[in-house]
Write a structure and sequence with these properties.
CATH class of the largest domain: Alpha Beta
Structural class: alpha/beta
Largest sheet: 9 strands, mixed
Helix content: 10-25%
Number of domains: 3
Strand content: 25-35%
Strand order of the largest sheet: 3-2-11-10-12-13-14-15-16
Oligomer: single chain
Number of strands: 26
Number of helices: 15
CATH architecture of the largest domain: 3-Layer(aba) Sandwich
Radius of gyration: 24 Å
Shape: globular
Distance between the termini: 38 Å
CATH superfamily of the largest domain: ANL, N-terminal domain
CATH topology of the largest domain: Rossmann fold
Length: 567
């Protein structure tokens, strides 16, 4: 760890040399040294199980790569990858990388199908690999995507040179699509030459959630990933890891490249399964059946685990670690330690910077401060600056910036956004607000853009949301700004109840408990409005859509004529 500083600065030196390699090279080595090891295991709601060994994965990916070359894909071309978490999608990802091309991760539903054409054009996509999912569950949005991209059999258009390859057979005979992955595997392509790939070559583009507008495209090289194959579990772990991770492949935390680079076994499911709390018992059963050692679980899944009956954990099975992140975590969530796992880990990461900090392993007896995300990963620097981008004293609240070898190269096709995202010294502006604690940990307090401007004061919703979640029968809560003529913005508490709870109950709870004891300036943070929702609108990531909630709250409170937030 770095020497103590009066400034808000943290740095953990690298613990070993960076690995100068590529994802395709490591996959090939895994296939040679551990050919029969299951690397990806797919479980379905119906209980079915399928898997890929290292050898099968690389053989099928290499064959797909040769086919892509025959279709005119050249080194550096962008190839889109569209579909859910399936084994075919893993083959597709590795096939694109082995061909020397760049993977553009695309999430799709009926709403986003309209925007895919614009994304393809912006990224100059030469080809798209598409998986319609088990039982062709994604066939309707895939059809909509192909229609909007003008992929008609009898038309010549501006997109007619773009090829669409199906990763599984589907009823799309009325569209101009190439062969399926199954038929590609039967072709004799051994004479096709593959390009040389180097660590600095571009590898993957991740699209951000788009919650602040159009999605940004985050560019990473092979070396960005290869120099960061650190496990989510402690580096001192002396057991063979089998990790449950159902995060979407298109997300930085769910990308299959880490499984390959770490030579782990990963148990996956469709990411939508965990969104339904009724599936929680099934998920835990699968974790046990696969004898997982660790699991990456979002906070809402941990919440659902804690709601299960004690009979579920009466056996001796326990995970070594449950890893989580993505929102404020506190002692409420550490209840999984003991019944479900031995230790807990909290990760702070982003698409642009990959892993940033890690708090853990956390034991049952250790108190956990809300928002404490620990110390930087090896090789990562963290600093806190004021709104003039100047470093501030330790303990003060400011904007979080990071610097490391794994920070993205650029926002693809967006030089202006890239310039705005970095300082002259190449510090990346995360957009998060936080501080450095006395013991040298990073404490997250919220998003810079989420700050509510009440009078002359900036109020960060995340901490208040965390405090409100301690109230019984609060299932979800989101604090949003609503317009106010006098103060510019006021605070509105929007909540979803899991029991008999009214807006009046929440208001009384705020007055009597939370803000008297848990905040510095109680009067400055007491919300003005309280609204109950049946459900929250959600982003594709599963998080509440705050813009939609804010709009709904403004309408329900009849504040449309007030001053409108210009952010």
């Amino acid at each position: 760890m770095d020497a103590p500083s009066d400034f808000s600065y943290l740095h953990t030196p690298p613990i070993k040399p960076y690995s100068y390699t590529t994802v395709a090279k490591v996959a090939k080595e895994n296939a040679f040294h551990h050919p029969n090891k299951e690397v990806f295991i797919l479980r379905e709601v119906d209980g079915s199980r399928s898997s890929l060994t290292n050898a099968a994965l690389y053989q099928q990916a290499e064959q797909l790569a040769r086919y892509l070359v025959t279709q005119g894909i050249q080194k550096g071309d962008v190839v889109a990858l569209v579909g859910p978490n399936t084994l075919e999608m893993v083959i597709g990802m590795l096939g694109i990388l082995t061909a020397g091309a760049v993977v553009l991760n695309v999430t799709i539903n009926m709403k986003t199908a309209l925007d895919v054409k614009e994304l393809f054009q912006l990224a100059h996509v030469k080809c798209a690999l598409v998986d319609t999912g088990k039982d062709n569950s994604l066939l309707p949005p895939v059809r909509a995507m192909l229609q909007h991209c003008n992929v008609q059999t009898d038309e010549t258009n501006e997109d007619s040179d773009r090829k669409f390859i199906l990763l599984r057979k589907a009823d799309l005979h009325d569209f101009k699509t190439a062969e399926s992955l199954e038929t590609i595997q039967l072709q004799n392509l051994s004479e096709v030459e593959l390009p040389s790939i180097y660590p600095e070559d571009n590898a993957i583009i991740f699209t951000t959630s788009g919650s602040t507008g159009k999605p940004k495209m985050v560019f990473h090289s092979h070396f960005d990933f290869a120099s960061y194959p650190l496990p989510l579990t402690p580096p001192t772990a002396d057991y063979e890891i089998t990790i449950f991770n159902d995060r979407p492949f298109a997300w930085i935390g769910g990308s299959p490249v880490y499984t390959i680079l770490r030579s782990e076994t990963r148990v996956v499911m469709d990411a939508s399964i965990a969104m339904n709390s009724q599936n929680t018992k099934l998920i835990w059963q699968i974790v046990k059946e696969e004898r997982c050692t660790d699991a990456l679980m979002l906070p809402f899944v941990i919440h659902d685990l804690l709601e299960l009956t004690k009979t579920v954990t009466e056996d001796d099975f326990r995970l070594q670690h449950i890893i989580t992140g993505g929102q404020m975590i506190d002692n409420c969530y550490t209840g999984v330690i003991g019944p479900f796992c031995h230790k807990m880990m909290i990760v702070y990461a982003c698409s642009e910077g990959i892993g940033i900090t890690l708090n853990g392993p956390i034991g049952h007896a250790q108190p956990l401060l809300a928002g404490d995300v620990g110390k930087p990963y090896p090789g990562v620097e963290v600093r806190i600056v004021d709104f003039q981008e100047l470093p501030i004293a330790r303990g003060l609240i400011g904007k979080i910036q990071i610097r490391s070898r794994q920070v993205m190269k650029e926002y693809f096709c967006s030089p202006n956004l890239t310039k705005e995202a970095f300082t002259e010294e190449r510090w990346f502006k995360t957009g998060d607000i936080g501080k450095i604690s006395v013991d040298g940990n990073l404490i997250l307090l919220g998003r810079e853009n989420d700050a509510i401007s009440r009078g002359t004061r900036k109020i960060y919703p995340s901490m208040l949301e965390f405090l409100l979640k301690q109230m019984k029968s609060i299932k979800e809560v989101s604090l949003v700004p609503v317009p106010d003529k006098r103060l510019y913005e006021e605070i509105c508490v929007c909540f979803v109840s899991s029991g008999q709870l009214t807006s009046h109950d929440v208001q009384n709870y705020c007055k009597q408990n939370l803000f008297k004891e848990n905040t510095v300036d109680s009067l400055g943070e007491i919300p003005t409005y309280f609204l109950q929702f049946e459900t929250f609108p959600k982003l594709p990531s599963g998080k509440p859509d705050k813009k939609a909630i804010q709009k709904d709250a403004t309408v329900r409170l009849s504040l449309m004529g007030e001053v409108v937030n210009s952010n």
